[in-house]
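Notes to self, Glycosyltransferase family 2 protein:
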Amino acid sequence: MNNPLITIFSPTYNAEKFLPYVFETLRKQDYKNFEWLVVDDCSTDNTVQLLESFREKADFPIRIIRNTTNQMITKNIEIGVNNAHGEFLYLTGHDDGLTNQCLSTFVNDWNSIDINTQDHLCGLVYHCEDQDGNFIGTEYPYDYWISNDFEMRFKYKVKGEKSSFHKVELLKKIQYSYPEIDTYIPENLFWFELSYTYNFMYINKVLRIYFQHDTHENISKSIGPGKKYMAGFAFFFKEIIRKYNSVLRKDYFKIWLTFQFNYVRYSRYNLQSYSHIISESVNKFTTIILIPFAIGFEILKFRRLL
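result:
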């Protein structure tokens, strides 16, 4: 299969206990014109050996790219996009499953859209459920809705993990540089950049099984001064404000203010001085005003001083 329609892309790291489940859901797909592209981020377990064993018995192509150094998730996404052979890329976690009709549902939905509308879309976005069949997040305001992530998240306040098929040719046009300041920078920077440029069709159907377990809570539980990922989160909020300052302040003021507030919090968690936080801020006056509120929030919520 030289030109699959869909590249299912999975970044992996020490995923040997999850991959058999993922592989079985791929084998059960009733649409077969796809490849599975895996970028392994220097796993220390048997992830790669397991993937190679899958390749021998799979009825679809499996391609494995092995990083020579551990990369951030955003860098792995860039690697996956640049190496995808499909027309569409479908990003999944290394522990995520697909419903049996996931790919055929997407193909049928896409083919039902007129060509002119297709040309103006970056892709289709669906919902997820957990391993127990529970719907994750909230539904879109319309069953077939053309919008973007800014409007979807900030205006209509749709929550939860989503399931997306993106045009690879448009993904490759998004160039974003991520400094190697932390092992984790939220990948939403990439998706916001994409959504700032293109529209999607959001569809109220569940296509991905988002496996929830303790590792998904590790980041949220690590919040605090000097903890892991604080540099990455501080950079995330700083970049969101820098790149989308005008549109957020104009159309989504409360979100803009929240991002400003979180920039202060996470910069302090990253042990930055207040003078440094102010000097690096896009909106210095607003930052100065928010600093005492951030200190008060920390004392009231966590009984500690920023």
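- Residues 6-217 form a domain with the Spore Coat Polysaccharide Biosynthesis Protein SpsA; Chain A fold (CATH 3.90.550.10).
- The mean pLDDT is 93.
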